[in-house]
Amino acid sequence: GQNIDQPTEMTATEGAIVQINCTYQTSGFNGLFWYQQHAGEAPTFLSYNVLDGLEEKGRFSSFLSRSKGYSYLLLKELQMKDSASYLCAVPNDYKLSFGAGTTVTVRA
Amino acid sequence: DADVTQTPRNRITKTGKRIMLECSQTKGHDRMYWYRQDPGLGLRLIYYSFDVKDINKGEISDGYSVSRQAQAKFSLSLESAIPNQTALYFCATSSGTSGYNEQFFGPGTRLTVL
Q1: Which of A64, B1, B31, B107 could staple B94 via S-S, CB 3.0–4.6 A?
Q2: C-alpha distances in angstroms, A37 versus A8, A85, A100, B42?
Q3: Which residues does chain B have within 8 Å of residue A97's beta carbon, measured at their own beta carbons?
Q4: H or E segment to which residue A96 belongs
Q5: A43-59 mean pLDDT
Q6: Is the pLDDT of residue A106 over 90?
Q7: Are residues B108 and A30, on separate chains, in Cβ contact within 8 Å?
């Protein structure tokens, strides 16, 4: 089975940087997804990492260490619209197992 | 136009009623999923289908059933609704053509069982 842990909440100031950590335990690793979900809306895809290292997409970057069972999502130059939940997910037999999500609140 | 649609978007019903939530997609994906989301628990998989003739239980299928009427349609039924089925329900699709594909989510259905 999958065991995925991420912090419940984080708060940061507009313009700052926030790092959301995700640790996982899985039998057979096949990559890791990050999704963004605004309150009451559908999750939307942010990133997929299958190899170790950092992948950057504009203000958002995602890092993976397979040996440590660890990933993080880095949000830079925070904007108010980044206030959302961020979900870490691991494939499991062609399904996805999700963490409970990290709610990020951006303050002015 | 939305690629994954869900109807209804909101529903209030009473304990014991039968409820059907519908999902349609125009993405041409073979794989479809139903999740429920509860505060603090994240997304949990109820049922999934990899093609029209394939139906599989997820981690919390008790009290639910599904029907894959066509490649584009996947319905979730609550045979006799109970209050602890109050939640936000999402349908999702993925292509499944290679490896692990991202899932695309519908807008969700907020269900309240009184």
Answers
A1: B31
A2: 14, 5, 12, 11
A3: 45
A4: strand A95-98
A5: 94
A6: yes
A7: no
Closest CB from A31, A40, A96 relative to B103: A96
In chain A, which residues have their Cβ closer than 8 Å to the Cβ of B104? 45
- The reported pLDDT for the residue numbered B98 is 55
CB contact under 8 Å between A94 and B100, yes or no, is yes
- B42 vs A87: CB contact, 8 Å cut-off? yes
Residue A62 pLDDT exceeds 60: yes
For B102, the closest of A33, A94, A97 (CB atoms) is A33
Band (pLDDT 50/70/90 cuts) for residue A2 is low
Tell me what pLDDT residue B96 has.
72
Is the distance from CB of B48 to CB of B31 less than 8 angstroms?
yes
Contact residues on chain A for B45, CB-CB shorter than 8 A: 95-97
> Looking at this protein, which amino acid is placed at residue A23?
T
The C-alpha torsion from B7 through B11 and B17 to B19, rounded to 10°, is 10
Looking at this protein, which amino acid is placed at residue B25? Q
CB contact under 8 A, B108 and A48: no
Query: Position A102: which residue type?
Result: T
